[in-house]
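<goal> How does this chain fold?
<body> The protein record starts here
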Amino acid sequence: AEKSSGTSGSSPKAPEKKTVVVTETKESLALGKSFESNRGKLPWPVLKGTITEGYGKNPHPTLANVYTNNNGIDIGAPKGAQVRAVFEGEVTSVLNIPGAGKVVIIKHGNYRTVYSNLQESFVSVGAKVSTKQAIGSLLPDDEGSLSTAHFEIHQVVDGAVNRINPTLWLAQ
């Protein structure tokens, strides 16, 4: 006969920590591979624009020997221009960040595209977006005649976020 003591082992000990492994779904993996295969062919996040500050280390516009570090690229565009998704995906965040306006983050498998300096967002979290779909409009610059889109691409690998130079991914 078996004895039932209510415990399944020797002395009571701390509960074991469960390791949660988040894996990409097949659909998500396929989307990431599809995004990857479009490197150098993605449409620009604005219809018309010029890169005003590139990725990485940049000289400060007015201070000698001072540099800024850009996690993405800045694109000068017409005042209030619409910003569009560069690839199909799912909106994971719509944030309001002081100094950066509204920010929209779209997931493409293990890649994320980040669009900031938006005055308004046309999408909400969970929305599925298509390539070139308008997702928001830009804040006007201080002078009021132009707008600047800030655009970043991130790759998520084993929980770590790697920033990628978007210039290499956009169609030239």
About this structure: The mean pLDDT is 86.
